[in-house]
Design a protein that fits this description.
Layout (H helix, E strand, L loop, with lengths): L4 H11 L13 H25 L4 E5 L1 E9 L2 E5 L3 E5 L1 H4 L8 E20 L26 E8 L5 E9 L20 E10 L4 E4 L7 H6 L12 E3 H7 L4 H7 L1 E8 L2 E2 L10 E6 L14 E9 L5 E18 L1 E5 L1 H12 L5 H11 L4 H8 L12 H5 L4
Parallel strand pairs: 11-15, 12-16
Antiparallel strand pairs: 1-16, 2-8, 3-4, 5-7, 5-15, 6-7, 8-9, 8-10, 11-13, 14-15
Helix pairs in contact: 2-7, 2-8
Bound molecules: 2-acetamido-2-deoxy-beta-D-glucopyranose (NAG).
């Protein structure tokens, strides 16, 4: 009746065909070993690396932290510039409170009794002069000390320099006190209070751990071996753990990092969350490229003399700035990362047959037999070899 009926039957049969792969069993112990060994490698990777080392079953969160510090200690000095002087925390910590850092003054160049007046510049090739013609009135060099008045004055009996309008006498900072003026700062202590939050897990903690009571806190001092949880640090100890000598660093100053690592495993079977401290020097201390070493800045204290004249004491302060750097991530079991990471890791199992096939077809002794059984080459034109053409022709 219909010429296309046979064809339609054929189309239908394509739609409702069930296809199933044929399995070829290779009874070869070496191929079997390669297959199982590769499987074992994948399982070891999943269990050992993904689960144990990477903890890929965990959700993670990074921390929010806040730090306050309190330095304690006294130093007594007796110098020609300022006479006998007792230093307490209000003087050597500048500014009194800072953001995750504190500065401890250790050395200084003091220029007392400066007033706004005129004086000859410090001698260098740009400022030395022979007569007034060498000096330009109103000229100011940013690297100099003031605004030139146009006069050439005697700096000393042998040298003449251009006069400047400035705070005189000028500071001479070529000679630093050595050992450092406040060498006693090595025995100062600092209490570091650090609170952290992992907002995703609603987890809060501080570095004064629950088992620390106030009497312990009054007498303890951080020591990696004996008091690893004590949040009070002796400055000398911090600097020496960073691999530096305090008295060397105190002369020209420097920047030191106090690193607090809060990496936490918040799963109930681990419950591990406490800070670990480490210390390192942050500013450049390259032994060869050591131009402009250390850390310093200037500030002045102003006074009024009884006659109303304003004078100041200029201080070029050298010291150690301690930066408190808090970091860490917390992990806790989560079903989504577990499924995603386990699925990704286990997908490597699908590569195992590829390895085993490769071994079977290239390295085993009966590879010719196996490849003949595994791969069937069709010769074009011999339709009788196509089983579908014969069994589903016209009925
Ligand atoms: C710091 O204290 C130790 C012992 O308490 C003492 O021997 C040392 O001299 C002190 N250092 C300074 C610079 O005062």
């Amino acid at each position: 009746m219909c010429k296309t009926a046979g064809c339609c039957q054929g189309c239908l049969h394509y739609a409702f065909d069930y296809e199933t792969p044929k399995t070829l069993v290779i009874p070869n112990i070496r191929v079997g070993c390669v297959f199982r060994f590769t499987q074992l490698l994948v399982v070891l990777y999943v269990v050992g690396y993904v689960c144990v080392v990477q903890k890929a079953y965990q959700e993670t969160d990074s921390l929010i932290s806040t730090v306050t510090t309190k330095v304690k200690g006294f130093a007594f000095t007796n110098t020609s510039d300022i006479g006998p002087h007792l230093w307490d925390v209000a003087e050597y910590v500048i500014p009194p409170q800072g953001d995750n850092s504190f500065f401890v003054l250790t050395n200084m160049v003091v220029t007392p009794e400066q007033t706004e007046s005129r004086c000859p510049e410090l001698p260098n090739p740009l400022t030395t002069c022979v007569d007034d013609c060498d000096c330009i009135e109103g000229h100011s060099d940013p690297r100099g000390n003031g605004i030139q008045t146009g006069l050439c004055e005697n700096y000393s009996t042998t040298v003449k320099t251009c006069e400047v309008l400035s705070w005189c006498p000028l500071e001479i900072d070529t000679k630093l006190p050595e050992p450092a003026l406040l060498s006693a700062a090595e025995n100062f202590t600092v209490l570091i209070k650090n609170s952290i939050t992992y907002p995703k897990f609603n987890f809060q903690r501080r570095n004064i751990l629950p088992h620390i009571n106030s009497s312990y806190l009054k007498r303890c001092e951080f020591n990696r071996a004996t008091d690893p949880d004590c949040p009070i640090f002796r400055l000398k100890h911090i600097v020496s753990e960073a691999g530096e000598e305090f008295q060397d660093m105190a002369v020209k100053g420097g920047i030191l990092g106090i690193l607090i690592d809060w990496s936490c495993d918040l799963d109930w079977w681990a419950k591990k969350c406490y800070p670990t401290y480490s210390f390192r020097r942050l500013d450049n201390k390259h032994p060869v490229n050591n131009v402009a070493p250390g850390y310093n800045f200037r500030f002045a204290k102003f006074y009024k003399k009884p006659d109303g004249e304003e004078t100041r004491m200029l201080i070029k302060a050298y010291g150690i700035r301690f930066n408190v750097i808090v970091f860490g991530t917390a992990g806790k079991f989560g079903i989504v990362p577990t499924i995603v990471n386990l699925g990704a890791a286990l997908s490597f199992l699908s590569l195992v047959p590829v390895v085993a096939d490769w071994f079977m077809l290239t390295c085993s002794r009966k590879k010719d037999l196996y490849s003949k059984e595994k791969v069937t080459y069709l010769t074009e034109g011999t339709e009788s070899q196509m089983p579908m053409a014969t069994s589903y022709g016209t009925q």
